[in-house]
Specification:
Layout: E1 2-11, E2 14-20, E3 23-24, E4 29-33, H1 40-47, E5 55-60, E6 63-64, H2 67-70, E7 73-76, H3 88-97, H4 104-117, H5 133-145, E8 151-155, H6 163-178, E9 182-186, H7 190-196, E10 199-204, E11 207-213, H8 214-217, E12 220-227, H9 231-238, E13 242-246, E14 250-254, H10 258-267, E15 274-279, H11 282-290
Length: about 300
């Protein structure tokens, strides 16, 4: 679906992206992560043909970038851009006019379908400049869905949405993926990436530092989370194995065998509500791979 080979982009003396080998398979829910200034947006621009690479290659759908391959992509990058004095439907009509020709009724149906998918089916004739940030974001997603794309490339698609809106967009993207749409999602919301994506890549200072299945990042930490109302008794029993506690009855226990730990607690009349291995978080994996900060190109313009 997407394959880059030694993809590189330089702005003068600043290297924004260097030797990037990215692989997104058909059907993936792919999360693209990295600190500010790491080169994510530059990469997305190259994937969409908006920026020419200095060297390397971008492959889409098994071939080089061309008009036909770009026509199969829906995108929402750096926030939606609309004509402010026009309504949402009028803006979508203009967007759809740039695509394949069709009857007026089929275009109207595509627009109404896209609005319904993003929760804007009841939108009125207000100009877009009167929309909230969340409504603009939904309209941008509707524009990306107009041509029923094989690949969706999204940059912060839940920006400006409330928690309910974030869940609705997440459910929509999962539904689209289940129906065959490949998702490429660039986001700073690690919790949303964890909830949505199956594969992850992490960029740092223009270079790929991680690329794998999400499950590979979230490996066990060697700690077991135990939730019990008998907190004090469990602490006394386990002694130095307890590495942390929380007021709501959660213990962090260093142990190799969750089943054996459960037996030990139950045999000592300690009630166990939940017991599960603690996995490394995506946040911990990203921070470990990218260091302690972002925007680290001192004295240089942010290459995005």
């Amino acid at each position: 679906m997407i394959r880059t080979t030694a993809l590189t982009k330089r702005y003068g003396k600043v290297t924004a992206v260097e030797d990037l080998d990215l692989h997104v398979a058909e059907g993936d829910r792919f999360g693209f992560l990295g600190p500010n200034g790491s080169g994510k947006t530059t990469t997305v621009r190259m994937l969409l043909g908006l920026v020419l690479p200095t060297s390397g290659r971008v492959g889409l759908f098994g071939s080089s970038i061309c008009r036909d391959s770009l026509a199969q992509i829906g995108s929402l990058v750096e926030g939606p851009a609309f004509i402010g004095h026009l309504s949402g439907r009028a803006n979508l009509r203009l967007s759809d006019a740039a695509g394949p020709r069709g009857s007026r009724s089929s275009r109207r149906r595509r627009i109404e379908d896209a609005l319904e998918q993003v929760g804007l089916s009841g939108v009125d004739r207000r100009p877009v400049k009167a929309y909230s940030l969340g409504m603009r974001q939904r309209l941008g997603l509707a524009s990306a869905l107009l041509r029923r794309p094989r690949l969706l490339v999204l940059d912060e698609p839940t920006n400006g949405l409330d928690p309910q809106g974030i869940r609705e967009v997440r459910d929509l993207l999962l539904k689209l993926n289940a129906e065959g749409t490949t998702l490429f999602l660039s986001s700073h919301l690690l919790s949303e990436v964890e909830a949505l994506c199956s594969r992850i890549a992490v960029l740092d200072r223009g270079r790929m530092v991680l690329q794998d299945d999400l499950s590979a990042f979230r490996r066990p930490t060697g700690l077991i989370e135990v939730r019990t109302p008998d907190l004090y008794q469990a602490e006394q029993l386990l002694g130095k194995r307890v590495e942390g506690t929380a007021p709501d009855g959660l213990l962090l226990v260093r142990h190799d065998d969750p089943a054996q730990l459960n037996v030990q607690l139950v045999r000592n009349d300690i009630r166990v509500v939940t017991l599960r291995p603690r996995l490394r978080s995506l946040e911990a994996a990203v921070l470990a791979a990218t260091g302690n900060g972002s925007d680290r190109l001192a004295g240089a313009k942010d290459p995005r």
